[in-house]
Glycosyltransferase, group 1 family protein (Bacteroides cellulosilyticus DSM 14838), 380 residues
Amino acid sequence: MRNKKLFYIVTTIPLSLNFFRGQLAYLSNNFEIVAISSDRDALEKFGETEGIETHCIPMVRSISLLHDFKSLIKIISFFRKNKPDIVHGNTPKGSFLSMIAAKLTGVPVRIYMCHGLRYQGYSGFMRSVLKMMERISCYCSTEVLCVSNGVKAILITDRICRVAKLKVVGNGSSNGIDVTKFDRKMISAEVLSSVADLDDKFVFGFAGRIVKDKGINELVSAFKRITDLYHDMILILIGPFEDDNPIEENTKTEIDLNPYIHYWGNQKDVRPFMCASDVFILPSYREGFGMVLMEAGALGVPCITTNITGCNEIIQDGVNGKIIPPRDENALYEVMKWFYEHRNDEVKKMAERARPMIVERYEQHKVWEALLAEYQLLSK
């Protein structure tokens, strides 16, 4: 007989387990945690870091009836053999397969953690398919944990899930933020100086995938317009270009040729780049939560973001940043211009308020404790 209840956490790829880095080691004090995902090598490496068991089941991110059916059969077989007490599904495909398998095998606690709603980025047939998958995941679960109140509201408005199943723990987020790591005091002056020659420059920063849905087309265009007025500013871009949902060709050309735009590619540590920024910008069309806003805020950087799910909960308009409509280049231009022109007064006050607001609402151990209490309550 097991001393601890068996807790399976499922994602399609191991990279998504980073949403729970540190938390799984913490939960293992109370549960027997097993991470289930594809890519054995990456999965085992993650398991060693967290000190938890892993089990590899091949899954693919794209919709593939044959591959998905094979994955489902393997998950069902594994659940039936080991009889977990809790299954925690994440990411659209991971939750879809794990919630079906858990319901079919009689797992008593079936948690679907909804990090965001992928169907919002699609139209037509694919949108209908993705919405159906969300409905099935919610139907097969016993509770749906939403990473933000905005995600919860959309699930209700779009009639994806019954209200009784939906819950936001604390102030939201799946993992909170390590406010010790994301502290400006942890970044040395030498590291900051290596980012770029930014003396006497006003710096806008962005970190994330360089894709259309992150609002990169609008960001680059708005920035170009501002540099027609002011020449003592820089735009730092961090992140990979992706072929899925690509930016416009003229935007990519502008990034390549504009001397005021510094593109640094993918970076393991975004903190120096955020600290080098006077303002952090996330002009995204859709998010589940907007983790980078928490990171920038914890480093004392005010933010510009869009009035979308999650982002409008982290940023309070006029307090620790500004909120604008998504897909609105003119609004983004005006607010970026406002930040530059008020850099010596209101912007500094926003910067002073940024870190305390994040620490108060999203400090990592507070989030972990709240989630642990929820899991213990569900598994009684």
Remarks:
- Residues 324 and 331 are 6 Å apart (CA to CA).
